Amino acid sequence: MTEDNAKLQKQVNDHNTKLQKQVDDLSEKMTEDNAKLQKQVDELSEKMSRMCEMQIEVMMKVTQMMTEVKQLKQMIPGQQLVRKSIIIAGGENKNSINSVEIFSWENKTWTLLNPMSTCRSRASAVTYQGEVIISAGTDGKKSTDTMETSSCDASVEWKISPVKLSELCRGHAAIMYKDSLILSGGIASKTSDKIYKISMVPPYSTKILATMPEPRYDHTMELFEDKLFIFGGCYEGAKDTVMMYNLVTKEWKMMTPLPFAVDEMATVLWQNNVIVLGGRNNFTGCKDTVVMYNLTTGESKYLPSMKHKRRGCAAVVTGGVLVVMGGEHVKSAEAFHFQEQVWEELPDMNEARKYASAVVKPN
């Protein structure tokens, strides 16, 4: 029985050894298979990531192509776009001024309108419900928190709005978004990093919409597809930054910077581009440069320079033509024709204007 038990034990041990080897082999194979599977998953994930990147790139190119097609359609000869009158208000000519002028394309003349009730330099201008709204600014001695409005028709007087800013301000930027005035930066008690949303309907509430990554003044701001794009400006020196704030997602994004630091410039929105005109850098100089910044790609392209160097100028786009006005000791105006890519001298304004505010007449 002892010998039989020994044989039986040996058989059991051999069987266990074989079984353990099979388990080890199976485990090793599973490990190898898992490694191969993980490698395949990683490769597939990488391919999907590349495909997503390619898809995004293709979508950006398609968007750019559609925009270019739209631009080309606007440049078709014989397709005359309507050019609306231009309003320019306030500014500085040695001292802050309250005069207002209108430019007529039909007569190619500047005509003085009724002046604002307050001298305003480094203010902002928007249009809303058929009226021009001039916000804040300085009279040369102190800043203001008031707004005034006018249809800018002949003989119509300016009136002080019941809407007020939350603090005295100058050197800010503003746009209209739905029924609210959105105001960024500027100099109040100190250089501001706030973006305010001011309701233009009763009870005219004001709230802080966002805080910029850094404060600034003498910058510009444009609205495109529910996004605020903030360009350049000054805070301890001129800035080359372009910041985007998404009004829907409430998120900031730092865009590709401008080719140079600049403040006291003018900007206009044209298609999916922002045109940056003139300005200065690091508290000195006066520029005649014109840069077209693509909001989709972040690319900058130089356009033909203006005929005059301008800082503290104002600009608008109407009827496919860009018009820039004024600047330091400058009362000239000039128009850039996108189709021909050339600048044309326009008649001088009645008064030289630096830090003026300009808009296309709303009606």
From TrEMBL:
Pfam families named in the record: Kelch_1 (PF01344), Kelch_KLHDC2_KLHL20_DRC7 (PF24681)
This protein's UniProt keywords: Kelch repeat
Protein name: Influenza virus NS1A-binding
